[in-house]
Each structure stands twice: as C-alpha cells, then as structure tokens.
Amino acid sequence: MTPAASGSWLGVLGGGQLGRMFCQSAQALGYHVVVLDPAQSSPAGGVADRHLRAAYDDPRALDEIGRLCVAVTTEFENVPADSLRHLARHCLTTPSGDAVAVAQDRLAEKAYLRASGVPVADHAAVHQASDLDACAQTLFPGILKTARFGYDGKGQARVADRAQALQAFEAMRGVPCILEALQPLDTEISVVVARGLDGRAVSYPPARNTHRDGILALSVVDGTIPAPIADQARDHALRIADHLDYHGVLCVEFFVLRDGRVIANEMAPRPHNSGHHTQDSCLVSQFEQQARVMARLPLGSADMLCPAAMLNLLGDLWFDARGAHREPDWAGVLAVPGTRLHLYAKSEARRGRKMGHVNILGRDAAELHARIARVAAVLGLPDA
Ligand code: ATP
Ligand code: MG
Fold it and tell me: Is this model's pTM higher than 0.90 or not?
C-alpha cells in the first residue's frame, strides 16, 4: 500500500461539523480536502480547500470529485449510497456504498448486526398495519421507529400495546417501520472503531452516553465501565466491522441491560459525536484515523492518555431565560483546567442544534467529574 502523497486530495460528502473536523485532521497531515455540499455556506465548507456546491447525487459533481481525489468519505449517513457506488468507479471510497446502505435501514442493520453474531433487541418489521397483528406479545411495551431517516430520537414512538402501535404507525404515514421491544437499560455506551484497508482495526475505549430530549448531551470515558462489559462491547464492535469488511471509522451504539448483557442498538458509518473527546484525549483522533485510512497510512493508537468527557453545546445555550440572544461564557469554561473548546462556526444558533462541544480531561475519574460539574455550572446546564 503506497500512501497518498502529501498535497493529494481527499473528499467528503457533507458540510456539517463532522466534515469540518475531518478536514482539519486531514489538512494537519498535509492533504487537501474538497467538500461536496449543496448549501451556500457550511461548517466544513468554511475550512475545506475547495467547496463544490452541488446536490449529493449530481453525477457531474461526483465525477469531478472522483477524478480529483485519491479517496472520498461521507460525514452523514443519509448520503445516497449510490453516490458512493458512483465514486467507487474513480477512487477509493470509505465506507462503501453497501456499508452505508446497511446503516441507513434499521431493518437491514439489525439483520446485519445479528448475522455478525452480536445480540440485538427482539424486533419485527412493520410494513403494513396487519404486521402489527402478527407481532409477538413480547414486543410490548416497545418502540416503533421508522426504518429510515431517524436521528436524535426523531421518527420514533414508545408504544404500550398493539393499539398504540397501530396509532403510531398511522401517524408515521405508513412508512416502513421496526417495532423493538423496550429494553431495561442500565447504561448506553458506544465504541468507535477504525479499520484499515488491510483489515487491521483499532477500537477506542467505550464511552458512556447521556441523552437529553433525545440528543446526546454528554459522553464520558472515565474507566469505570466494568472490564467484562467494556471488553464485550469492543469485541462486538470489531466483529461487526470485520463482518462488513468495513473500511474507515465506524461507531456502534450499545445498550447495557440491567442483567449485564450488552446488545447492539445501531451503528453509524462515520466518526461519531461520542468519539469527539479523542481529539484531545488520544494521540490520534477518530477524524485522523479516517484520514489515515483514506490516505493508506497506518492506523494510530486508540489508547486514552487520560480520562475524558465530551459535553455537547446546543443552540439553547445562546438564549437567556427570557429568550434573548447571548454569547455563552467561553472564558468561564476555558478557565476550568483541562478543557478545550470546539465550535463549528454555524451561522445561526437554534434550540437543539449542535453548535460545538467542550472536551474535558482529568488526571483521574474524580478530577474529571469535578471539572465536568464546573463546566456545567458555568454554562447553566443541569449537573451532568
Ligand atoms: P441517535 O441519532 O441519537 O443515535 P436515533 O434516532 O438514531 O438516535 P436510537 O439510537 O435507535 O435512535 O434511539 C434513541 C434512544 O432511544 C436511545 O439512545 C435509547 O435511549 C432509546 N431507545 C431506543 N431503542 C430502545 C429500546 N429498544 N429499548 C429502550 N430504549 C431504547
Ligand atoms: Mg442512537
């Protein structure tokens, strides 16, 4: 494998914050980055060496990027899988269109996870109302989710029984759905894996994730996940990446159940919000791993240098109690030792919109948690 020469071009489909952080890592390695995004301005477009403004399925734009780049990736999972397949005619495409297609459809995804030998929640496909009549009673209470295009908890409904499931299915206008049995959750954890073209892979230690209003609020890697659970999750994630013959960075979200079992929930075929701490807590971040795979460079270490956390900064922080616009107290945040601020340069703060994150490091778990509490207090967030 000959590595891409410095100054070569890498491409990314999507102009969001993940694309932005990917650009920054790839540029630090000496590569040029081109972003394909239809928007006039975007977080990634603002830092890329080139921004190609076109639709994600525009064949001329795809041909142009494919000819320019040695490798192309995506920063969002709802990219048309066919665009990646199209690009694969010109250059290395990581992940492949096929891998992305699996992650885009919860039904295909669950089948895939199971086929990799990794347990998942009991579930059933719901394509029409009569499928709900045929569902096992053990799927209630459950969660009905649209099979495609769900994120941040959108496109799902908790249902106590069959009648509620029918109502929810009709409210979703009959699009294909999956009904999952509601799991008795102890914690939610996630593992980011990077897998190279030669099949070698590394996994970061699992992060423990807390959501607020369906959106990831905090990811913590403080070394307190019991080893058997952490090892199981890492094994599962590596196994899934192997089974897909996956190239690039992949995140698998897991549920840890009250009885200690670890089951897979879903996967994201890209760097993940819960892996942002690796920018500051590891020698090589998840974004740099992605760039290294694309450039045919060796993977870097996924070891943590110290306990760390990632606190998401949502647009809500830009509004005071009366709804007036304000700038959050960054000086106060950065006065807390061990903090690093990452803002995405989005044009407008809106409630629920991911505007940035703070990475927080500590020498041990106690120091980390004390610092998380201090940062949360400065920002006026409920204690994490
Ligand atoms: P995100 O974009 O944040 O990853 P999503 O919209 O893709 O979310 P899921 O991750 O499947 O959807 O579900 C969102 C949250 O709902 C989970 O993090 C978990 O808290 C809860 N949840 C989902 N499925 C189940 C389940 N089967 N049992 C219990 N809780 C669940
Ligand atoms: Mg999820």
Answer: yes
Q: Does ligand 1 have an atom closer than 6 angstroms to the CB of 152?
A: yes
Give the per-residue SS3 of 99-110: HHHHHHCHHHHH
Q: Is 217 helix (H, G, I), strand (E, B) or coil?
A: strand
Which domains are delineated in the chain? 9-93 (3.40.50.20), 122-181 (3.30.1490.20), 185-379 (3.30.470.20)
Q: Ligand 2 center to residue 8 CA distance, Å?
A: 34
At residue 151 the predicted structure's pLDDT band, cuts being 50, 70 and 90, is confident
DSSP-assigned states of every residue in 36-98: E-SSSS-TTTTTSSEEE-S-TT-HHHHHHHHHH-SEEEESSTTS-HHHHHHHTTTSEESS-HH
Q: Is the CB of 355 under 6 A from ligand 1?
A: no
Q: Measuring CA to CA, how many Å separate 306 from each of 202, 223, 303?
A: 18, 9, 9
Amino acid at site 342: H
Does ligand 1 lie within 6 Å of residue 109's CB atom?
Answer: no
Give the number of the ligand closest to the Cα of residue 147: 1
Question: Is residue 383 predicted with pLDDT exceeding 80?
Answer: no
